[in-house]
Design brief:
Helices cover about 80% and strands about 0% of the residues. With about 200 residues, the chain is mainly alpha-helical. The longest helix is centred in the first third of the chain and has 35 residues, at about 1-35.
Length: about 200
């Protein structure tokens, strides 16, 4: 009897959580529809509600509205805040954009270091673009010391993640590595494949 009651409560909780997820999805779609129809104030209000509730895609979209001043006065500060919240919640789009924004700005404190951190997070989350950008950082040595083994590793992973642009660059990097470096890189690739999504 007690087990049956526990199963019933558990099932009801699952149904409730599924309903919440569907409601959140439908609210997000309402916000997107309002945005696409040019109803920016309405979209902003829904995105704000969803963002406060922790929806990382809504947080990303809200950041864009603040950065561009769509449906609200332009606020770079609010844009950064929501972009960071989205990235911290695992939104890959936000991670990549933060990396690009930090990399492009010479006025941001620790910009180069932050670009590396966000590209690395996106790469570890399985983003082929994040992997490509990380490889380029290792190759160029602008944000971090040059490391051609790491550059080759991440360029190869980017290619394997579906980025065809990375294939010729991976081959060019491979040609610059010694047999020992290639063996080390192959081992790193195998280890990373186990941890990447």
């Amino acid at each position: 009897m007690r087990i049956s009651s526990w199963h019933t409560v558990f099932r009801l909780q699952l149904v409730f959580l599924a309903c919440l997820a569907l409601l959140a999805c439908s609210d997000y779609q309402r916000a997107r529809s309002a945005y696409e129809a040019g109803q920016y104030t309405k979209a902003l209000q829904i995105f704000e509600q969803l963002s406060e509730a922790g929806n990382s895609q809504a947080q990303y979209d809200l950041s864009q509205m603040y950065f561009q001043g769509i449906g609200t006065p332009k606020s770079i500060e609010q844009g950064w805040m929501w972009m960071n919240r989205a990235a911290d919640k695992g939104n890959i789009q936000a991670m990549l954009e933060l990396g690009v924004r930090y990399q492009a700005s010479s006025s941001l404190e620790n910009g180069e270091e932050m670009a590396f951190i966000w590209f690395q997070k996106a790469a570890m989350a399985g983003s082929s673009v994040g992997q490509y950008n990380l490889a380029r950082l290792y190759e160029s040595g602008k944000q971090i010391p040059v490391d051609l083994v790491q550059a080759y590793v991440w360029m190869t992973l980017s290619n394997k993640s579906g980025n065809p642009t990375a294939a010729p660059e991976a081959r060019a990097l491979k040609a610059r590595l010694s047999p020992d470096e290639l063996a080390s890189a192959s081992q790193m690739i195998q280890e990373l494949k186990k941890t990447l999504p």
